[in-house]
Automatic annotation (TrEMBL):
Record protein name field: 7-dehydrocholesterol reductase
Lineage: Eukaryota, Viridiplantae, Streptophyta, Embryophyta, Tracheophyta
Natural source organism: Canna indica (Indian-shot)
Record keywords: Cholesterol biosynthesis, Cholesterol metabolism, Endoplasmic reticulum, Lipid biosynthesis, Lipid metabolism, Membrane, NADP, Oxidoreductase, Steroid biosynthesis, Steroid metabolism, Sterol biosynthesis, Sterol metabolism, Transmembrane, Transmembrane helix
Compartmental location: Endoplasmic reticulum membrane
BP GO annotations: brassinosteroid biosynthetic process; cholesterol biosynthetic process
Length: 440
């Protein structure tokens, strides 16, 4: 079995739990938001009364229209991914020495998708409210279809891997969950993880956010200020993502996590269902915030999204210039860390310790969690479920930070004790400099 970050017991328990619990949770969340007034207690009482048969009754069967909507959307995004022009971008070198090449056209695809979707509605060609009306069937189809998709990825990893960045742990469950291939592709140019993570997952988030607005408008003749704040913040965040998409290809999701249930099923099902859930709740529960509170929440959310973007921008600038740049108007402080590759080669890497990255490690996760809170808080606090995404995101990012730290430690990039000593030395040096300046 391949080495894992957590103990084998924790790994197997978490893997089996997520494989078995996530699919039904998606359906239960949809049912609760749409049919149970957003009340977890109401859903619990229903299941308590009706038992497993009640659960079977609320699970909608994937309908032909659901499959058609998914197929049309997926095909449209795949065509945009292949056809739209974009800058050639190289990803980070892989553990086996491969350098993945991408075409950065996500922002163009995002703009074309939203303009097309809104135009279809505006000119009466297609009513997005249909998507909301068949949402349960769509999620049910995604749950089933994405499990089959992940199984095909598992078989592809065994039979026709796209590169040498592929391998098996010898355990079917682990291979299915974590994936076989790091960079699976169809042909030379169609990158599967870019499609699942960016073009289907993130794009469906934006499309569903707009869908919820349109559905509320058609139901009530207007869109509430709470829905507007939620939708604006989500769309700004997603716009930021596609603006920065090439940077995302250097993150753990793409450069380290293989294509399996964890990443691909998560992006195909979990993102469009869980990430959009605050807006799903607001469709039937419009809240009148008032101008002042709406603007306050909107400004706070926009500030968090900007800080999150600026964190990544500082890191990219630092890496691009090899540390020869200005961060907040000053030459950046850094850590020169040595590490050993799988081939036994010793290399060095620069770690930024200035700007936002001088505040704390993984500081960029803080404004990301806060941004999620601000686009959820328009729902106020009558029910807990709209805040599930905020809770989930917090757990996810804490776990991701731990996995990133452990990965760096296992690769001898930098050990935690060394980091603490270096950080303490930097703080001490700054304090001494400050005291000397103060005395002078």
């Amino acid at each position: 079995m391949a080495e894992t970050v957590h103990s084998p017991l924790v790994t197997y328990t978490s893997v089996i739990s997520l494989l078995t619990l996530c699919p039904p949770f998606v359906i239960l969340l949809w049912y609760t938001m749409v049919h149970a007034d957003g009340s977890v207690l109401q859903t619990f009482e229903y299941l308590k009364t009706h038992g497993f048969q009640g659960f079977k009754d609320i699970w909608p069967a994937p309908s032909p229209i659901a499959w058609k909507l998914i197929a049309c959307f997926g095909a449209f995004e795949a065509i945009l991914q292949l056809a739209l022009p974009g800058k050639r971008v190289e990803g980070p070198i892989s553990p086996t020495g491969n350098i993945p090449v991408y075409k950065a056209n996500g922002l163009q695809a995002y703009a074309v998708t939203l303009v097309t979707y809104l135009s279809l509605w505006w000119f009466g060609i297609f009513n997005p409210a249909i998507v909301y009306d068949h949402l349960g069937e769509i999620y049910s189809a995604l749950v089933v279809g994405s499990l089959v998709f992940c199984l095909l990825l598992y078989l592809k990893g065994h039979l026709a891997p796209s590169s040498s960045d592929s391998g098996s742990s010898g355990n079917f469950i682990i291979d299915f969950y974590w994936g076989m291939e790091l960079y699976p592709r169809i042909g030379k140019h169609f990158d599967i993880k870019v499609f699942t993570n960016c073009r289907f997952g993130m794009m469906s988030w934006a499309v569903l956010a707009v869908t919820y607005c349109i559905k509320q408008y058609e139901m009530n003749g207007k869109v509430s200020d709470s829905m507007l704040v939620n939708t604006i913040l989500m769309l700004v965040y997603i716009t930021k993502f596609f603006w920065w998409e090439a940077g995302y290809w250097c993150t753990m999701d793409i450069a380290h996590d293989r294509a399996g249930f964890y990443i691909c099923w998560g992006c195909l099902v979990w993102v469009p269902s869980i990430y959009t859930s605050p807006g799903m709740y607001l469709v039937n529960h419009p809240v009148n915030l008032g101008i002042q509170l709406s603007l306050l929440i909107l400004a706070s959310g926009l500030l968090c999204i900007y800080i999150n973007y600026d964190c990544d921008k500082q890191r990219q600038k630092f890496r691009r210039t090899n540390g020869k740049c200005l961060i907040w108007g000053k030459a950046p402080s850094k850590i020169v860390a040595s590490y050993r590759t799988e081939k036994g080669e010793t290399k060095t890497s620069l770690l930024l310790t200035s700007g936002w990255w001088g505040v704390s490690r993984h500081f960029h996760y803080v404004p990301e969690i806060l941004a999620a809170f601000f686009w959820t808080v328009p729902a106020l606090f009558n029910h807990f479920l709209p805040y599930f995404y905020v809770l989930f995101l917090t757990i996810l990012l804490f776990d991701r930070a731990k996995r990133d730290d452990d990965r760096c430690s296992s690769n001898r990039l930098i050990k935690f004790k060394q980091l603490r000593l270096i950080s303490s030395a930097l703080i001490s040096q700054r304090n001494n400099t400050y005291q000397s300046t103060k005395k002078g």
